[in-house]
Amino acid sequence: MKAFLVALVVAIELTLVFAGCPTIISKNRWGGQQASQVQYTVKPLKYVIIHHTSTPTCADEDNCSRRLVNIQNYHMNQLDFDDIGYNFMIGGDGQIYEGAGWHKQGAHARGWNSKSLGIGFIGDFQTNLPSSKQLDAGKKFLECAVEKGEIEDTYKLIGARTVRPTDSPGTLLFREIQTWRGFTRNP
Ligand SMILES: *[C@@H]1O[C@H](CO)[C@@H](O)[C@H](O)[C@H]1NC(C)=O
After folding, report:
1. What is the C-alpha to C-alpha distance for residues 25 and 92, in angstroms, rounded to an integer?
2. Which of 20, 32, 34 lies closest to 64, judged by CA?
3. What is the spatial distance between Cα 138 and Cα 95, in angstroms, rounded to a whole number?
4. Are 22 and 91 in contact (CB under 8 A)?
5. Stretch (H or E) spanning 2
6. Whose CA is nearest to atom 5 of ligand 1?
7. Residue range 36-80, pLDDT digits in tens
8. How remote is the CA of residue 121 from the centroid of ligand 1, in Å?
């Protein structure tokens, strides 16, 4: 009985460690404003679209937060979006930051927003790769999204440049995601 309980506790802890999703820095914590309007999506989503923010990157939470406040202001004030355009952002510090969030439509790839999760890697990856921390965080986050049933387990992973006239997610990050689960050029 005791051995069984120990095994059970170990199994539960392993589940928590390995199946757990990374901590997500809430919009409130990074200093973002609430959306001015929300449109919902239905899970599981079939597509994931990878972007870069086309800004300098950031290596700690303070600087990533400042970067995101600027991006959100630009999206809401200049582009007239209802929120920061991405569903989630991945910092150079290896942390996940909440954008529009789960079950909500982002504004990141016209024509695709209602059926995709938009993930923005903070930085410009035309000639540099994201840090390994940042890449690992992105991959773990996608596994987590499958485990939570937020995206289909046969999800299709798309670089923004495949569906929109943009450089995003940058040539080097685009090359990198070609080795990731679900990648397609023909969504
Ligand atoms: C954060 O930004 C400040 C001001 O730009 C800079 O001096 C500092 O080195 C940055 N910290 C990190 C960890 O990148």
Report:
1. 13
2. 32
3. 9
4. no
5. helix 2-18
6. 63
7. 999 999 999 999 999 999 999 999 999 999 999 999 999 999 999
8. 18
